[in-house]
Structures are given as C-alpha cells and as structure tokens.
Amino acid sequence: MKKRLFALFLAVAMLWLTGCTDLDGPEEDPFSDLAQYYTPVDNSDSAPALRSFALPYFSQTTLDPVTCPDGPHQTIGALLYEGLFSLDGAFQPQPVLCVSCAYDAASFTYTITLRQGVTFSDGSALTASDVVSTLQRARGSARYGGRLAEVKSVSGSGNTVTVTLKSANSSFASRLDIPVVKAGTEDDPVPTGTGRYVWRDEDGGPCLMANENWWQQKTLPMERIGLQQCKDNDSVAYAFYSREIQLIACDLTGTATANVSGGGDYTDAPTALMQYVGFNAKSKLFSNGALRTAMSLGIDRVGCVNAYLLGHGTAAQFPVSPASPLYPVDLERSYSPDDFAAAMEAAGFSTGTERPATMIISSENQFRVQAARKIAEDLSRYDVKITVSVLPWASFQQALKDGKYDLYYGECKLTADWDLTPLLGKDGGLNFSGYSDAKNLPPLLSAAAAADAEARPEAVKNLCAYVQQQAPFAPVCFKNVSVLLPSGAVDEITPTAADPFWSLDQWAMHWAEE
Description:
This protein is of the alpha+beta class. Helices cover 22% and strands 26% of the residues. The strands form 7 sheets. Strands 1, 15, 17, 18, 19, 20, 21 and 22 form an 8-stranded mixed sheet that branches.
C-alpha cells in the first residue's frame, strides 16, 4: 500500500480495528463535509521531523496480548510478542515460533513442531506448555474466542503442540497468529514474550529495548523506543500532534474518534474487516433471490470506498479480501447501471409500482451511515424504495434479532481462512434471517473448509460464485488500517493488519540533524 502525504485535520479513530461511540452521520453529501480531512501539504523543502521515536501507552492497563484492549497496547504488543504464525499482507500464514504444521484430515488434528532455540526475553526456553497455556486462555477470551470456537482440545509436550478441531479445516493455521506469552507471567503487568523488544523501567519512565535474546537476531533500526504515558485517546492524539509520540496504528474511518492535527504520512494495510449489505431472506421482498441478486448489481462499490471510506478500503464483490490470492478476480462484474436496470426488470421490479423497504444501520459510525444512505438511494431507482433507519447499537442488534428489517448495512471481521459459516451456516451468529439452502450450501461450505492447498482456490471460488448468484448478502468492501508517522520519518514500511512493524528490520529511518 503506497504512502501518501496528508494533513491531519481529521477525526482519527484511535482503535486498531473497531470501537463504538454514538455518532449520527450528517444528512448531506460527505464530499463537502469531509474534504477538510485530507488537505494536501507540501513538505518538500522541510527537514525530516524525526528527532526521537516513542509510542503511547496507558498505565494501569495490562499488556497481556490476549486480554488487553484495542489500541496502543496492541501496537506495543506487536514488538513484545510473537505467535506460532504471522499473517503477511496477503493473509498467508508464515511460520514464526513453529517450523512445521501437519494436518491429519481424518482426525481433524494439527501437529505443530516448535522452533528450536527460541527463548523468551528472560532467557528461558519456549516450550509447548507456554503455547498450550496461551491457546487455552485465548479460547475463553473476547478477542480470540470466536476464531478458536472450532477447537476441541489443545495439548502439548516438549516441542510439539497438538490442536484437534471439531470439524475439517485445512487452513486453520491462519488463525494461529495469536501472540504467545510465557506461562505463569500472564498476570504480570507486562507478560514475558519472545519478540523483538523487551519492556524496561528506567528512571525517566518505561521504554522498550532491543531484545538481546531475540532468536531471529535481525538488525533493528532502533535500540530504544520511548514510551509516553497517556490517559486516554484524546491525549494520544495530542501526543502525536506535539511529536511526543511518532506512530499511531489506527482505523481512520473507525468509531472511537479523537481530534488530531498536524502533518504526517500514512501507510495502509488491508484487513479482514468486511462491510456488506445483509438481506432479510424471510421478508416479503427479499425472500426473492432474483431481487437480492439484482440489488447486489446496483451497488457502486468503488464509489463507496472512495467517498465514504475516504479510500481506506478496497471494493469487493466477494467475502474474501481482494488482497488474498483466493479472491476470484475472474468472477467480478464491472459496476453498470444498465446491468442493474436489466436485472431489476428481469426480476419484475421495474413496473412503476412502489415497494417500500427499510434498511437499518447502527448509528455509532458516521462513515457507515453515509455509505448505507448512498447505497439505499442508488438501489431505490426502480420499484423498491428504501428508507434508512439509523438506530442506536442496542436497538440495531434487537431489530436484527427480531427480524424487523428488510436490509441492513453491517460490518464484520472474518477469519483469514475466509470461513463463511457465521454468515451462511444454519446456526451462524451473523445469519440473522436464518438463510438456508440445505441442498447446495452445506456441501460448498464443507468443501471450502476441507480442501487441501491445491484444491482450495477452486473450492473457495465455487462458494464465491454461489454468493454472487444467490446473494444471501452483498459484500461491499474490505477496510484498511493505517499507520501514521511524521512526514519524512520512515521509508520502506510495509505494515500488516496485525503488525504495524511487519518489516521493521527494513525500515529506513530519517533523523533530523541536531
């Protein structure tokens, strides 16, 4: 993702991925309202602004990566901890603390062999017990419990960890990028990890120091990273403006906002956070599959991303990130108002007889509200006339539960194996209308989960083709996250969704002359 210069006269979302606050989006076109967010500046003659490098932290808040909140501590955790795997920019699992991961399709069992010679920052050796302890805690956590719900058991001894699933999943390794901490230290304010840096308390306050025991032994661009205590998101934003801190990893169209001003660079990374239009398959209108499919054709996805995510996302017609090699580009259809018109006519909804419908959207994010309103307007060109109902989060959830909607605009985080069971499974937690197709859908879901590496692209493509043809829901886009740095500070930054420091050993730091 390319780096661009911008002026931060904007509402910066201080959470790495998501958050909640009550924000009602304005009625008017955000092109005029939000233009102030991106005012180009010319810093070509200015010296690099980097005189120090520090990150924000909240005192009295755990740094345990399994239980700590979104935001600054997840950013720090990316330097302190490592997982069995890490996900690269294409969501492919790369082995980190393990050297191999063998899957037995007959028993749904993964046998993971740990890397030899890995030590924690205190010098003690990584063992299977440490990994098992972390995974067991993660199974019961709010952050990782959903992705590990398929796990039947976890065990290990020596340098081998065994994970047994409840059903087939040949790509489960992509869910095992969970940061590992030393067993017995999880209740410490800063649990012990194996990562690039280690927490140190100095007379002037805490900092991060390069981990002398780091098994990878790569050269790091900074021996020391300062830590600036902040009390809340607003103080983090001010610390970035005043150059007390030099990096924020955030969602620029998220929901928890703080005012930030000043100049800087941002670099985007793709995430597995999907925005989509959901249909109530039990409603009078949208039990009609032809209408759902036609409606999917009427969404200007690229326009939505550019206007309402301010470019911080990628249009997607399928529930797989376009950054993934599994995204079926050859199935895409270019947006065409003429195709939408033809599909609505073929479905019998271009007669001149108005058919009212209600799209619900939660009120906490103005960007999503604006996108929902624009999509509803575009989809109301023919018989179906959509009214958007903006609801508080609790009311939105209740309306979904009670089926009191025709459409909704939603956002969900998918797992990196692109498991659609939550959205399409009979008992899926996001299958609010109970959509089902007992004949065709279960075999497609099972095939996508069970397929080996060679067969998986075709299996995922077949499932995506079903979503395209039947439109149980209509994907709109996948969001990006952004890493903010002072202008001219760093080159060669290639963050990922979970790690703003993915290529840290390759960073080119530009320091101001004293």
